[in-house]
Amino acid sequence: MFKPALTLTFNNAKTVFEAGLQAIASGQAEIDLGALTAVDSSAVATLLAWQRAARGAGHSLTFHNIPAGLQNLASLYGVADLLHIHRHAAGVAQDGSRHRP
C-alpha cells in the first residue's frame, strides 16, 4: 500500500503525486494517508488526480487513515463525496479505518 510521508503541500505535491501515480500504475488500489502531518489544498487536488488516474486504469482507489485536516479541506471544497471521505463519530470512516483527530 502506498503511504505518502509527513507532508503533502504545494512544496512537494508534484513529487508525491508522481510517486502515487507509479503506485497506481503498478496496480495498487489503496493509499494510506495516516503519516501525513501537514496538508494544504494541493493534497485535495492530488487525491482527485490519483482517483482519476485509477479510474483511467480501470480500477477504484481507496484512501485510508485520512487526517482530519484533509477531511476538512475536502469538505470545504465540496469534494468529500467525490473522494468518498465521510467523517463519522469517533473518527471512524465507513470503511472502518480510523482517522486522526
Can you put this structure into words, describing what you see?
By secondary structure, this protein is α/β, with parallel strands linked by helices. It has a single domain, classed as Transcription Regulator spoIIAA (2-Layer Sandwich), CATH 3.30.750. Helix content is 38%, strand content 13%. It has a two-stranded parallel sheet. Helix 1 runs parallel beside helix 2. The longest helix is centred in the middle third of the chain and has 16 residues. It starts with 5 loop residues before the first strand and ends in a 25-residue tail after the last helix. The C terminus is likely disordered.
Fourth-level CATH superfamily: STAS domain
* CATH architecture annotation: 2-Layer Sandwich
Average residue pLDDT: 88
The level-1 CATH class: Alpha Beta
Euclidean distance between termini CA atoms: 22 Å
- What is the CATH topology? Transcription Regulator spoIIAA
CA-atom Rg in angstroms:
12 Å
Sheet-strand content, in percent, reads 5-15%
Major sheet: size, sense and barrel closure? 2 strands, parallel
Number of domains: 1
Helix content: 25-40%
Secondary-structure class: alpha/beta
Count of separate DSSP helical elements: 3
Q: How do the strands and helices of this protein lay out in sequence?
A:
Blueprint (H helix, E strand, L loop, with lengths): L5 E3 L4 H13 L4 E3 L3 E4 L1 H16 L5 E3 L3 H9 L25
Parallel strand pairs: 1-3, 2-4
Question: What is shown here, in short?
Answer:
This protein has 101 residues and is of the alpha/beta class. The chain is built from three helices and four strands, in the order βαββαβα. The two termini are 22 Å apart.
